[in-house]
Amino acid sequence: MTGQLSSELLKLRTTRTLAAIVLAGAGPTLLGTGIEGLSPTLGELGQEETQRSIFSAAGSTAVLFSTLAGLLMVTSEFRYGTIRPTLLFEPRRRVVLSAKLAAAALAGVLLAAICEAIAFGAGSAILSAREIDVALTATHVVALIVGPITAAVLGAMLGVAIGTLIRNQAAAIVALLGYAFAIDAVLFGAAPSVGRFLPGKAGDALSGLPAHDLLTPGAGAVVLALWTLVFAAAALVRSDRSDV
Length: 244
Known about the structure:
The chain is mainly alpha-helical and 244 residues long. 83% of the residues lie in helices and 0% in strands. Helix 2 packs antiparallel against helix 4 and helix 7 runs antiparallel to helix 8 (138-165).
């Protein structure tokens, strides 16, 4: 397991995929923070809920791109055929899948930390420029840091599972984005009491987004963890029973 994990981390360090995803995630985070910080009036900007929206701009972006990173870790191997030497080196597929899940989790931590640094840096600069005091308590700040990192870790692992289930890279990306921007958002808008239990909205709740129809952060963590476990179990079955 240790050797396979080292191999997966080496792949992440020596390919451009993770760096590209980090850069791609930085842009929307900065844009979202700017919109949330510059759109409200001064009175609204001083409110705790508005400031939570500003600093939580990193959450949904980090989760989405972490999921994409996990997905690409698997589908890229099938796309370029490197899965065969990977399995020749380590024929125990459960070990390979476990190593990818662990490596993806670490990638999720990195991506979330970078996105959070951007959101907190830009958000603090906007509040300072507009001469608004920070209304968030230490508890809020901790939740806005720990929540997105946890959600990004689970999202990255979920991405590995999705990539294992849908090995075609283009199909897997389309399925992920279609779900994120269509099914998840539409179902939550139409029936929030049901949609809030979907993985995307559970991740939003865990990330600290102040939407009234979302689950609590603790409940969101449990729901997202359960989704991740279900998909990981399905991926394990698919990996054991399918040829490469």
